[in-house]
Design brief:
CATH class of the largest domain: Alpha Beta
Radius of gyration: 29 Å
Structural class: alpha/beta
Low-confidence stretches: 218-223, 486-495
Distance between the termini: 76 Å
CATH architecture of the largest domain: 3-Layer(aba) Sandwich
Helix content: 40-55%
Number of strands: 16
Strand content: 5-15%
CATH topology of the largest domain: Rossmann fold
């Protein structure tokens, strides 16, 4: 039964207001089940069954009571909960129904404490001589948030594996699985053992024996802060922009760094500087597999420049594009340039016979835009870009002449795996690498983020800086979790980002958390209207404001859907973790709702078409996705994003049964586009070799 968000009173499903206090019931209630990463601890007495045969039942009960009491106390002292007692075995869960962020470490520390407690019991009681085997295992499970009496809290292979590991553990010893070891090897001392051949497991199970903690549990801490330790990089960007503005020439800068290292923050500071100094800024973001489209980031920039909304009908969008280009370049060039740009945007269905001609139109367009004043083109997360977009960026950097254009690319180092020669040979190219913060800088940032003061602040700053390993995002998420703690401090700081984000989500009020999970299905970027089916307008306004104040989401200044407020998760990992909590059935229901919203919004363009396809596919409705995938493939192929087109055809094939007569036709188209993509790559390599020879 739904709980009142105000007084926690049970109410019938149909109640719009609480029957006890009269408060409005949320129209969207949190799912009773979630997918979660949990840590399971199994403890079993060795040889006690045979000993019990010769004992009086009351003596058996007394011994088991002592053992149960100490095991429960140790598990609960580290934030876990005992799910069940099975004979002389104890099973505990960490991470459900509430995550702490460091649940694997808590589980292992609890296991070590149980070993010590049993030894103490033996020392305190003559002739007790209890011996145990323990296993700790971490993995995904389906968790019931409000189980009925007698029902299991969690189900999944993680529990079965923990049981198998426990049966192979040494007497008075602890075995842990691979995921638990990966999360805790920096704080727990282990010795490796041979993989275990376990009953019911297809492959041997990797395991380690936990020996002792290498340090005491680290303590906790949070807030917002100024940019720290990036003054040199920001000065280089400022100086480069000034040269672009003064000399009317192109400059390209790629900022490399690991996830969370501060690329986006540095870019935002630079964007603010450019805006304050009269420059025009157009930003495009490359998104990972699910939401990616051919030329996506550049197409988004063109739409910003022209004023096209994703919700514009095709004829309206093409009209805006044609009028804008004609004003820039005149009627003579407008048909060709706007036609080529229309293909890139997925608005035109005709094919472009010559990709070089299409790229020349792109160059003419950007040069004409920049002729009116300095322009900054920001390409975020370029490591997720398809090859067509990378070609466009390289072309602009190599060929744009005599106009003030600054290209800023933000990327993980993965980009160099796809393009080892990225930027090489360009006359005005600069690469900046963001390294982890030094200990001193990390401590300074932690000091800004944390809310406490005095000696407690100094102690928390040191712990936080050490755990984050110089990653500003880690620091920010750790600090946010710690500042939102309302109860006693946890025994240790979180040690993994997923644990940190899950712990922060669990600390939210139920409605805020539920809205975040619903929004996560839409993607990194989402719209108010896509949530309106499950939430009333008043509730949405209140929750959006609360989540924005908590720095979890942010409202964007522009929207690709006219008339729709557009929001974004501040960090992709927040969105990913929230999405992963949804069970398959609820996930499919939400994907169907999102797909219907996107259809109603009449979105156009390759990226929008692909998004509709993937939402229908993930809704368990592949038959609704096929035509969208084929349309996206056609649009990408027409724009000479042949490799992307081949991928779309492959996704269409995955949605069709083996006996569908369309498979032969789609395979043929996929083969042709894949071959064309190879020719494009070969031509690019041939041109590069010619340039080297010259």
């Amino acid at each position: 039964m739904p709980l009142c968000p105000s007084c926690a009173q049970d109410n019938p499903d149909v109640a719009k207001f609480c029957l006890a206090c009269g408060a409005r019931m949320s129209p969207a209630v949190e799912s009773a089940e979630e997918r979660r990463v949990v840590t399971v601890i199994f403890i079993d007495l060795v040889g006690f069954t045979s000993r019990a045969e010769t004992m009086d039942p009351e003596d058996v009960q007394e011994v088991l009571s002592l053992y149960y009491e100490r095991a429960r106390a140790d598990i609960e002292s580290f934030g876990g909960m005992v799910e069940k007692f099975i004979g002389d075995a104890v099973m505990g869960i960490f991470g459900a129904p509430t995550a702490h962020g460091d649940d694997p470490e808590r589980g292992v520390r609890a296991a070590l404490a149980v070993v010590d407690s049993v030894a103490e019991l033996n020392a305190q009681h003559d002739h007790l001589d209890l011996q145990i085997r323990i296993a700790v295992n971490t993995g995904e499970a389906l968790v019931s948030l409000n189980p009925a009496p007698g029902d299991a809290i969690a189900t999944g292979d993680v529990i079965n594996t923990a049981s198998r590991l426990q049966s192979h553990a040494p007497v008075n010893g602890i075995l842990v699985g691979a995921e638990t070891y990966a999360c805790t090897h920096e704080t727990i001392r282990y010795e490796p053992i041979d993989p275990i051949t376990a009953k019911g497991k297809a492959a041997p199970v990797r395991a380690w024996r936990a020996l002792a903690a290498t340090c005491s549990p680290r303590e906790s801490g949070t807030s917002r802060a100024p940019l720290v330790a990036r003054a040199r990089e920001l000065r280089i960007l400022h100086d480069s922009w000034q040269r672009v503005a003064d000399d009317g020439a192109l400059q390209m800068v790629t900022v490399y760094g690991a996830s969370g290292i501060g690329k986006t923050r540095l870019g935002s500071e630079f964007v603010q500087h450019v805006t304050d100094n009269g420059g025009r800024v157009f930003r495009g973001r490359s998104l990972p597999y699910r939401d990616s489209g051919a030329y996506g980031a550049f197409a988004g920039q063109v739409k910003q420049i022209v004023g096209i909304f994703e919700s514009d009908p095709v004829d309206i969008a093409l009209g805006k594009l044609r009028a804008f280009v004609e004003e820039l370049l005149g009627a003579t060039e407008a048909d060709t340039v706007s036609g080529h740009l229309g293909v890139i945007l997925g608005l035109e269905r005709g094919a472009v016979a010559d990709r070089e001609t299409m790229f020349f139109s792109v160059r003419c367009f950007i040069e004409a835009v920049a002729a009116a004043g300095p322009v900054l083109l920001v390409f975020e997360d370029l490591h997720w870009a398809d090859s067509g977009l990378l070609d466009v960026v390289e072309m602009l950097a190599a060929r744009v002449r005599n106009v003030p254009v600054f290209i800023l690319a933000l990327s993980r180092p993965d980009l160099l795996d796809a393009r080892p020669g990225w930027g090489s040979g360009l006359p005005s190219y600069l690469a900046l690498t963001l390294d982890p913060l030094s200990d001193a800088d990390a401590r300074e940032l932690a000091g800004h983020l944390l809310a406490t003061g005095g000696d407690e602040l100094l102690r928390r700053v040191a712990a936080l800086a050490a755990t984050a390993e110089g990653n500003p995002l880690f620091l920010e998420q750790l600090a946010a979790t710690l500042n939102e703690q309302t109860a006693a401090l946890p025994a240790a700081l979180p040690t993994t980002i997923r644990g940190i984000v899950t712990a922060r989500l669990d600390a939210l009020p139920a409605e805020e958390r539920s809205l975040l999970v619903d929004a996560a299905v839409i993607g990194r970027v989402f719209w108010r209207g896509a949530l309106a089916r499950s939430w009333d307008d008043e509730t949405l306004s209140r929750l959006f404001a609360a989540l924005d104040a908590r720095d979890l989401i942010q409202r964007e200044t522009t929207s690709i859907i006219e008339g729709q407020q557009q929001y974004a998760f501040k960090h992709g990992m927040i969105r990913d973790v929230a999405y992963e909590t949804l069970p398959r059935r609820r996930r499919q229901e939400r994907h169907a709702e999102v797909a219907e919203f996107l259809e109603a919004a009449s979105l156009t363009g390759t990226e929008a078409v692909a998004a509709k396809a993937r939402h229908w596919r993930d809704a368990g409705r592949p038959e609704r996705a096929v035509d969208y995938f084929l349309t996206a493939a056609e649009q990408a192929g027409n724009g000479w994003a042949k490799d992307r087109a081949a991928l779309f055809y492959g996704e269409a094939l995955d949605c069709l049964p083996e006996d569908d007569e369309r498979r032969r036709m789609i395979r043929a188209k996929q083969a042709l586009t894949a071959a064309a993509a190879q020719h494009v790559a070969d031509a690019r390599e041939f041109r590069r070799q010619q340039q080297l020879a010259d």
